Amino acid sequence: VHFPDVERVEWLNKVLVQAWPYFGTIMEKTFKEVLEPKIRAKNVHLKTCTFTKIHFGEKCPRINGIKAYTKEIGRRQVTLDLQICYIGDCEIHMDISKFNLGVKGVQLYGTLRVILEPLLTDAPFVGAVTLFFMQKPHLEINWAGMSNLLDVPGINVMSDSLIQDFIAARLVLPNRITVPLKKNINIAHLRFPIPQGVIRVHLLEAENLVQKDNFLGAIRGKSDPYALLRVGTVQYRSKTVSRDLNPIWNETFEFVVHEVPGQDLEVDLYDEDPDKDDFMGSLLIGLVDVMNDRTVDEWFPLSKTTSGHLHLKLEWLSLVNDQEKLHEDKKGLSTAILIVYLDSAFNLPKNHFEYSNGECGAKKIKNNKYLKKMEREPSSFVLLTIGNKTQKSKTCNFSKDPTWGQAFTFFVHSAHSQSLHVEIKDKERDSALGTSVVCLSHLLKDPNMSLDQRFQLDHSSSDSFIKMKLVLRALNVEEPDPQRVKAGVNASKQGPVHVMEKGGNQQKFVSPPEDSKAPPVSKDSAAVESLTKKDSGGDLDTKDSSAPVPSEAVAGPDGTEHKQNPEHRPPPAPHSGAAAVPTLPGVQELRLAPSVTSLGSLPSSCFELSSSNLDIHNGTEMPLGEIQLTVRYASIRQSLVVLVNGCRNLVPTSNRGVDPYVRIYLLPDRRWTSRKKTSVKKKTLNPQYDEKFEFFESLENVKKRTLDIAVKNSRPFISQERKELGKVRIDLSQEDLIKGFAQW
């Protein structure tokens, strides 16, 4: 499915292909002249380090799509999301003391955010470029030489995850790289911007979860569910509820949100087992909708599973510079966050013997062999503590004036009584080089609730300091805009968007791609109002409509409503709890993006179910109805995504009606374990499924396969009724799977 806000940039990929050999030459020179001397200087054992082969290969990174943000952000910046895919044939070998280590291939997928700010009125027009990944990128490495021991199953997962953690510590939110393009520009506020807000997640309960516990492979017992909640690199785990498919947690978690739009709340449910925990379903919620709605209290349907709903209450807390909002919460929840910008330290002692309580005292060292080690400059890191939460900085090696340049955030329960404890330690000897305690009440004396200064270190030299900037912000739940139609359960990023063709009474369904951040749309027709307000005040135009708009009853030019067939109407979302919103009689017509509607409006794009194995109905036999599918290839996940939207006009096999479900094979694989199957819909000829299935295969393999899709009747085992209601086959070699298609 083509979405206007995610653009394919083939011209940029062609530029990359042409420039890649020259980039490789520059990198080879950098490895030899810059990296090799730095590695040798790190350790005495690395003095023999030599790069014997550096070749960056023929395959260059590919940008699958770019999304540009201009409306949701400030006027002095441009934000781009780049979907990067790199399947490289690079080869790098290194010799260290007769050992040969190397890499002979790398795979990397992820979404890289690029922020250009501030925009200037003179050349180079952009002050700095900031880069970071929204989530941990997917990484696989093929090792060579001695290091191919890291390819051993079990070890390879560990080695790749260690490198992923290394990347995350530098390049995944809240960490970022900022490169200044103009001289004398202050990039501190670009590297460490104040977070956008805080999301408070109340994990309440779940119901109808799938049974995962097996006994002797047959009898299913009740599961022991727990939840993993994640925003960016921060993850929390709930308690485990034993033997319950309708667990009640009533737990609260808080996450700092650094980028909106961009960051999402991910919830995964698992069944706790002694050997391996079983997956029970997941949920992905766009935080931009929670930010706009302020409070969302809904039952969300779980995806990637056959049944289950999760009840969450989500609160968006804005960061405000208002001391009146700092009153203590009676439930013990956070009332503020403290942002610590750790800059540098000055004149640290070489060891904790050198100074005692600020007074210089000569210490006799009995063992002379330790003398050289004691005389070395310290390798220092910082421990920052508020309450029971401690965070650790990176280590700066061999410097008495270290510069860390890092930011940390802490949740604060009582700004009037809590303190920040700072301790600088030496990595080599694990000894304290200095400490400092800052009472948060000092920040309340400043109108901006911030301190930017050098703090004297205790238990250190009299001229030892640490430089930090502290910013305190109160957490505030703002009242939602009464004019705004809430997204509610549609904040969940799953399922298709229902649309109705102009002047027609048949539905077309389109599913947004996983990585597209198109604004979610309510199933109520009142969502038309919110979307027309978001766009530039007029109709939904083909140029600026980023998502098709649903409507169950759309007013025509004469003011009368065109009602849909009740059989075709999607079922209401379970447990939504919200009253139905009246339809809008003022909407004259809906003009949808041609890339969406044209796919479903052409006669040739209907998949008609036939009783034979013909792909498309050829007019010579009785059609058995139609099935609507959305198919695309998700490059980042390396999977074929098949969304079964629904069927219409099925032919009944008996007078008692049919209970249809859809079965999918990716031919030639007909194994029972590879079969995908939807839920069963009772007594209907126009079933609505909206269920998503994934086949994890490379694009090259998928292009050689055929989708075999059958609609079947769930009937008793001894029944004589015909089971198959119709089938269709789709030759995937003929389709543009990256662009995708949505067709009846």
UniProtKB/TrEMBL annotation:
<keyword id="KW-0813">Transport</keyword>
<dbReference type="GO" id="GO:0005509">
    <property type="term" value="F:calcium ion binding"/>
</dbReference>
<feature type="domain" description="C2">
    <location>
        <begin position="173"/>
        <end position="300"/>
    </location>
</feature>
<protein>
    <recommendedName>
        <fullName>Extended synaptotagmin-3</fullName>
    </recommendedName>
</protein>
<dbReference type="InterPro" id="IPR035892">
    <property type="entry name" value="C2_domain_sf"/>
</dbReference>
<feature type="compositionally biased region" description="Basic and acidic residues">
    <location>
        <begin position="559"/>
        <end position="570"/>
    </location>
</feature>
<keyword id="KW-0812">Transmembrane</keyword>
<feature type="region of interest" description="Disordered">
    <location>
        <begin position="483"/>
        <end position="581"/>
    </location>
</feature>
<dbReference type="GO" id="GO:0061817">
    <property type="term" value="P:endoplasmic reticulum-plasma membrane tethering"/>
</dbReference>
<dbReference type="GO" id="GO:0005886">
    <property type="term" value="C:plasma membrane"/>
</dbReference>
<dbReference type="GO" id="GO:0031210">
    <property type="term" value="F:phosphatidylcholine binding"/>
</dbReference>
<keyword id="KW-1003">Cell membrane</keyword>
<comment type="similarity">
    <text>Belongs to the extended synaptotagmin family.</text>
</comment>
<keyword id="KW-0445">Lipid transport</keyword>
<dbReference type="InterPro" id="IPR031468">
    <property type="entry name" value="SMP_LBD"/>
</dbReference>
<keyword id="KW-0479">Metal-binding</keyword>
<dbReference type="GO" id="GO:0005544">
    <property type="term" value="F:calcium-dependent phospholipid binding"/>
</dbReference>
<dbReference type="GO" id="GO:0006869">
    <property type="term" value="P:lipid transport"/>
</dbReference>
<dbReference type="GO" id="GO:0005789">
    <property type="term" value="C:endoplasmic reticulum membrane"/>
</dbReference>
<keyword id="KW-1133">Transmembrane helix</keyword>
<feature type="domain" description="SMP-LTD">
    <location>
        <begin position="5"/>
        <end position="182"/>
    </location>
</feature>
<keyword id="KW-0106">Calcium</keyword>
<dbReference type="InterPro" id="IPR037749">
    <property type="entry name" value="Ext_Synaptotagmin_C2B"/>
</dbReference>
<dbReference type="Pfam" id="PF17047">
    <property type="entry name" value="SMP_LBD"/>
</dbReference>
<dbReference type="InterPro" id="IPR051634">
    <property type="entry name" value="Extended_Synaptotagmin"/>
</dbReference>
<keyword id="KW-0446">Lipid-binding</keyword>
<dbReference type="GO" id="GO:0035091">
    <property type="term" value="F:phosphatidylinositol binding"/>
</dbReference>
<keyword id="KW-0677">Repeat</keyword>
<keyword id="KW-0256">Endoplasmic reticulum</keyword>
<dbReference type="GO" id="GO:0008429">
    <property type="term" value="F:phosphatidylethanolamine binding"/>
</dbReference>
<dbReference type="InterPro" id="IPR037733">
    <property type="entry name" value="Ext_Synaptotagmin_C2A"/>
</dbReference>
<keyword id="KW-0472">Membrane</keyword>
<dbReference type="InterPro" id="IPR039010">
    <property type="entry name" value="Synaptotagmin_SMP"/>
</dbReference>
<feature type="compositionally biased region" description="Basic and acidic residues">
    <location>
        <begin position="531"/>
        <end position="544"/>
    </location>
</feature>
<dbReference type="InterPro" id="IPR037752">
    <property type="entry name" value="C2C_KIAA1228"/>
</dbReference>
<feature type="domain" description="C2">
    <location>
        <begin position="623"/>
        <end position="744"/>
    </location>
</feature>
<dbReference type="Pfam" id="PF00168">
    <property type="entry name" value="C2"/>
</dbReference>
<dbReference type="InterPro" id="IPR000008">
    <property type="entry name" value="C2_dom"/>
</dbReference>
<feature type="domain" description="C2">
    <location>
        <begin position="318"/>
        <end position="459"/>
    </location>
</feature>
